[in-house]
Amino acid sequence: MIKMPVSAVVDLSTRGMQKLDPNFICSDDTHTLILDGNHIMKLDHLERSPGLQQLSVASNRLVRMMGVCRLTQLKILNLPNNSIGYIEGLRDLPHLEWLNLSGNNIKVIEQLNNCVSLKHLDLSDNNILAIGDLTKLLSLKTLLLHGNSITTLRTVPAHLPAHLSILSLAENEIRDLNEVSYLASLHNIEQLSVMSNPCVMATPSLPGFDYRPYVLSWSLNLKVLDGYVVSQKEGLKAEWLYSHGKGRSYRPGQHNQLVHYLATVCPLTSSAALETAENAKLEKILSKQRYPFRLTKSPTKLLKNTFEGEVVPSAAVTATSPEVGDGTLKTDSETSPDVGNAGKEPPIDSEIGADKASLKEAHKAAIKIQSWWRGQHTRRCHPVAREVRSEIRLHRMQEHIVYLSGKLDKVQQQYEEERLNRLLQEEAVKFLWKQLQSMHQWRESVEQQLSRITQAVAPVPMPHAAPCEAAPPAACSMEIPPSTDISYPDSGFQSTSGQHSVAGDNCSLLEQYLSSIQQREEEEAEDAASDRTDTPQPSPPLPSNIKHSASPPQDAGDKGAEAAPTEEPAPDAEATL
Fold first, then answer.
1. Which of 130-139, 239-248, 301-310, 470-479 has the highest mean pLDDT?
2. Is residue 155 one of the residues assigned to a domain?
3. How far is 133 from 115, CA to CA, in rounded Å?
4. What is the mean pLDDT of residues 528-554?
5. Is-contact 367 276, C-beta < 8 A?
6. Where is the composition biased (Low complexity) (predicted)?
7. Could you report the per-residue pLDDT of 159-170, keeping only the tens digit for each?
8. Contact, 217 vs 236, CB < 8 A?
9. Per-residue pLDDT band at 4 (split at 50, 70, 90)
């Protein structure tokens, strides 16, 4: 049994593990197990560690998650960036509070109703098509569903708990901005994200508009929208759209009509020069609210008058603090020194004029930041821009592949040429080596033949003068023809015609030499026969060494056979003697 060391946290990440050992067990003091960055495909053998409270198996190869079903004390489960196809094994985990299943292949939200303690649920970057039933998750506060394929929000009122505070629906396939109306049932929502959906992206066929006030009009408690804090101006626009605007009168299916209406009420502004009169009036109202005065009319009525073209009189502002002395409230007409002058503005307008330059500068900076962010966001998240970027990358990749293919062809061609050159060099060396061996063999054979010929014609010493003394002098008078010099090539290829010519010359010399020797032996034999017939006087016997040396040794091959008949007269002469 493999028991982990006693520690509160056991980190086995990036170990190249493919599965857990069957005898794997954590100590009783261990509450966190980290298995990130391995190659685990299945969660097995975790039942021996039921006391685990936190488990992380991120960036592995998990296909199923059933192995966590017996970890009843689990509070945090982190399984992102795997290949999990569906949610399972969570029925007996009532203490689970934090669940991360992002970056998997989940298509349906299911089997989560028993996780009554769940507060954070991350199902982003999956293949979810619709929002499932999560009404029994009474503790759920955060739901992340960005990066899926959700097309409608019709199931939100029936499937999401009303106390949800954070909801992310960015990067989905919501094409109708009126779908936002279904979020009105989430009364406690504070943070919402709907960016990178087709319904809020600019298209060539529709005019540009600011969708933020419209979304805020359905969720007035929002504090953060698409990662940006809701401004006071956006809050005022949303309140006006909620109370007197026509934006809430449109229904799902009327996206184009809503966009045209919002383009007139909430247009996009790229610079201070394009600021509308309505925005200027909103700035004026907001600037008045910064001072210690209260409005005699409600902000909604002021907004209504502003959008309808009514100018708000400055006398509508009254003091909120009593004047010292009589303890009664006084209006601006009583406290202002310019009372009775109908054409003059109260002091508050002069102060607003003094701050107008700074407000314009701040507004210009905000517009620049917003335009930069929109451009950056469009380049990264707009589907057309992403498609263009992918095409550009694909084109560059193809060009690079063609370039690398050309370089590879050149390298292969050079390698093939070098290989052929090496083969030719090897063949040349082999041929030269064979030629050298054949030349050495031919030289040895010639030397052997010459040595045999030299031994065959060697002079024989005669101790006594005899009638046959003429033979040795004749033999001795024979001179060995000078040997021809044989030249061998130092390098390169030796032509076969040259070799045959040299060999032919040597053979002809040998044949002439042997024929001359044979003729002289025949002449000596005839002289000896004539001597026997003329003077048959006995002669002393020859020594054995002289007898054998007088006859030349037989040569190899046919040449020895030709020399054999010349040796027959010698024994006959000896016999007669």
1. 130-139
2. yes
3. 13
4. 49
5. no
6. 562-577
7. 999 999 999 999
8. no
9. low
Residue in 276, 320, 224 with CA at minimum distance from that of residue 284: 276
Question: Where do the H-state alpha helices sit in 130-202?
Answer: 156-159
How many Å apart are CA 67 and CA 69, to the nearest integer? Answer: 6
Beta strands in 6-147 (DSSP E): 9-11, 24-25, 32-34, 54-56, 76-78, 98-100, 120-122, 142-144
Residue 342, token pair as written in the block: 């109908």
Helix (H) or strand (E) holding 509: helix 496-534
Torsion sign across C-alpha atoms 209, 210, 213, 219? positive
Which residues have C-beta within 8 Å of that of residue 577, sequence separation ≥ 6? 538, 539, 540, 541
Domain final position from 236, 258, 287? 287
Please count the structural domains in the chain: 2
Mean pLDDT of 42-69: 90
In this prediction, residue 290 carries a pLDDT of: 53
- Does some domain include residue 350? no
Which pair of tokens denotes residue 41?
């495909």
Q: How far is CA 540 from CA 459, 521, 532, 537, in A?
A: 21, 22, 14, 10
pLDDT tops 90 at residue 517: no
Contacts of 157 (CB under 8 A, 6+ apart): 182, 185
The DSSP-derived string for 234-253 is HHHHHHHHHHT-SGGG--TT
Residue 541 belongs to some domain of the structure: no
* Chain centroid offset of residue 170 CA: 28
